[in-house]
Amino acid sequence: MDKPNGPARVAFTGSLTVRTADAVRERLLAALAESNRFTIDCSAAEDVDITFIQLVIAARQSAARAGGDLALAQPADGMLLAALRRGGFLTDDCVGTTESTFWTREAT
User: Fold this and answer.
1) How far apart, in Å, are the Cα atoms of 64 and each of 5, 28, 39, 41, 94?
2) Nearest-angstrom CA–CA distance, 43 and 33
3) In this structure, which topology does domain 8-104 adopt according to CATH?
4) In angstroms, rounded to a whole number, what is the distance separating the alpha carbons of residues 3 and 84?
5) Over the Cα atoms of the chain, what is R_g?
6) Pick from 19, 20, 11, 58: nearest CA to 38
7) pLDDT at 100
8) What is the CB-side half-sphere exposure of residue 39 using CA atoms within 13 A?
9) What's the pTM value of the predicted model, to 2 decimals?
């Protein structure tokens, strides 16, 4: 985990799917144990499925319960954006909601 200035940053690369869920979960738990404020960078993800999205949502809720915050290092794009659309997390009905704003950083 990288923490130059401000919130810690956790970078994920490669496959972020059910096959890597245990490793992703462990890294998120380690980040939460170290700080309740951190960003996730998954811009180098090669494959993303709903498992990763669920882990990020759970980590975000855990950080919030601890009085912290979890954010994406950049708006969802590429493989993450495709997985969000496939999973129904980003639809026309949810534009402008708190959840869609988290993923896209669009103003409400």
Assistant:
1) 20, 14, 13, 19, 21
2) 23
3) Transcription Regulator spoIIAA (3.30.750)
4) 27
5) 13
6) 11
7) 76
8) 16
9) 0.88
Rounded mean pLDDT for each run of 10 residues along the chain, 108 residues in total: 66 97 97 92 95 97 94 94 92 72 75
Render 34-94 in DSSP notation, one character per residue. H-SEEEEEEEEEEEE-HHHHHHHHHHHHHHHHTT-EEEESS---HHHHHHHHHTTSS-GGG
The residue type found at 49 is D
Indicate the residue type of 92.
Answer: D
Instruction: Show the tokens assigned to 89.
Output: 């997390």
Q: Is 11 helix (H, G, I), strand (E, B) or coil?
A: strand
